[in-house]
């Protein structure tokens, strides 16, 4: 059995990392157009660095929860049975990896990586990033940015994701509002290909009607129950 799982911010909510669009979420406190667009970064890189430095520190202090651990178990169990879990996350945190999942495909990038806008070099970066940080490859300063996907930018690994989706026997979306494309469109693509679809969420998302089935409640309870 091949299962494609798409996770969103809801899977990390019980680890203490904020979601984006819930009441009191990240976009209620911060303006996405200033902090999560290339234009926002060009006009005020210091503000963007401060936002991601804060989130990087929060992430390093956070711990994986039972939902992350259950998905890591599911991956091992499927592999032992000759199948595969394709774990695709919109999250930039590393909680799936720290729970033992491997591989994890980060379609919106990773908070622990930075990228040079001049030469494209990507490097691990566990500490604060500033406008003065030089590129470890080309030594230029001023062009390092978080290796994350902002609005208007192309998400990562799309070819691999498309192939895995079409090879899946089941598509499951966990803890995502289904409001950001192209991830929000995966359920329709799966349906069109005749693949069964399931939503796991605190409550039905805006696109819940597109799923064949739904399981609702906190991810740390519903995901382990679904995996067992
Ligand atoms: C729980 C829970 C618990 C709570 N247990 N559950 C088609 C139509 C319309 C617009 C577009 C379109 N195609 C593209 C666009 C534009 C845009 C877009 O989608 N805009 C929409 C807002 C309308 N998309 C893009 O720009 C994307 N790029 C693109 O399409 O490129 C194409 C292109 C073509 C040619 C040239 C160039 C480009 C890129 C999108 C990048 C998104 N980036 C962000 C920031 C990443 C870095 C960072 O983290 O700062 O990604 S925005 C933010 O939203 C982040 C998330 O990954 C993403 C999704 O959010 P998510 O995970 O769904 O979180 P929430 O908060 O929305 O939902 C949480 C859910 O959890 C809720 O449902 C809760 O109920 C639930 N929950 N607690 C279980 N305990």
TrEMBL record:
GO MF terms on file? histone deacetylase activity, NAD-dependent; NAD+ binding; protein-malonyllysine demalonylase activity; protein-succinyllysine desuccinylase activity; zinc ion binding
GO cellular component annotations of the record: cytoplasm
Domain annotation text? 2 residues (Tyr-52 and Arg-55) present in a large hydrophobic pocket are probably involved in substrate specificity. They are important for desuccinylation activity, but dispensable for deacetylation activity.
Q: What is this protein called?
A: NAD-dependent protein deacylase
Q: What class of enzyme is it?
A: transferase
Q: What's the superkingdom here? A: Bacteria
- Which residues of this protein are catalytic? 108
Keyword Transit peptide carried by entry: no
Which positions bind NAD(+)? 8-27, 90-93, 175-177, 201-203, 219
This protein's record includes keyword Chaperone: no
Listed A to Z, the keywords are:
Cytoplasm, Metal-binding, NAD, Transferase, Zinc
Tell me its family: Belongs to the sirtuin family. Class III subfamily.
Binding locations of substrate = 52, 55
The UniProt function text for this chain reads:
NAD-dependent lysine deacetylase and desuccinylase that specifically removes acetyl and succinyl groups on target proteins. Modulates the activities of several proteins which are inactive in their acylated form.
Q: How is the cofactor bound?
A: Binds 1 zinc ion per subunit.
Matching entries from PROSITE patterns are given as:
SIRTUIN
Q: Which gene encodes it?
A: cobB
Domain Deacetylase sirtuin-type, residue spans: 1-228
Reaction(s) catalysed by this chain, per the record, are: N(6)-succinyl-L-lysyl-[protein] + NAD(+) + H2O = 2''-O-succinyl-ADP-D-ribose + nicotinamide + L-lysyl-[protein]; N(6)-acetyl-L-lysyl-[protein] + NAD(+) + H2O = 2''-O-acetyl-ADP-D-ribose + nicotinamide + L-lysyl-[protein]
Locate the residues binding Zn(2+).
116, 119, 135, 138
Known Pfam families for this protein? SIR2 (PF02146)
Q: Which InterPro entries match?
A: DHS-like_NAD/FAD-binding_dom, NAD-dep_sirtuin_deacylases, Sirtuin, Sirtuin_cat_small_dom_sf, Sirtuin_class_III, Ssirtuin_cat_dom
Enzyme Commission code(s) on record: 2.3.1.286
Task: Write out the annotated subcellular location.
Answer: Cytoplasm
């Amino acid at each position: 059995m091949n299962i494609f799982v798409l996770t969103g911010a809801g899977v990390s909510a019980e680890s203490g990392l904020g979601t984006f669009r819930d009441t009191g979420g990240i976009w209620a406190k911060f303006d996405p157009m200033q902090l999560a667009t290339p234009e926002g970064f060009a006009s005020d890189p210091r503000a963007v660095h401060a936002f991601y430095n804060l989130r990087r520190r929060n992430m390093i202090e956070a711990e994986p929860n039972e939902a992350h651990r259950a998905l890591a178990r599911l991956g091992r169990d499927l592999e032992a049975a000759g199948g595969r879990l394709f774990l695709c996350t919109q999250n930039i945190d590393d909680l799936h990896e720290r729970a033992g999942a491997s591989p994890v495909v980060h379609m919106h990038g990773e908070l622990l990586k930075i990228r040079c806008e001049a030469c494209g070099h990507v490097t691990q970066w566990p500490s604060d990033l500033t406008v003065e940080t030089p590129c470890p490859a080309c030594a230029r300063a001023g062009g390092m940015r978080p290796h994350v996907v902002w609005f208007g930018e192309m998400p990562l690994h799309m070819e691999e994701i498309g192939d895995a989706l079409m090879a899946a026997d089941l598509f499951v979306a966990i803890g995502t509002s289904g409001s950001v494309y192209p991830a929000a469109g995966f359920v329709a693509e799966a349906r069109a290909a005749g693949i069964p679809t399931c939503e796991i969420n605190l409550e039905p998302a805006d696109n819940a009607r597109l799923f064949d089935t739904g399981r609702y409640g906190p991810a740390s309870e519903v995901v382990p129950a679904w995996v067992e």
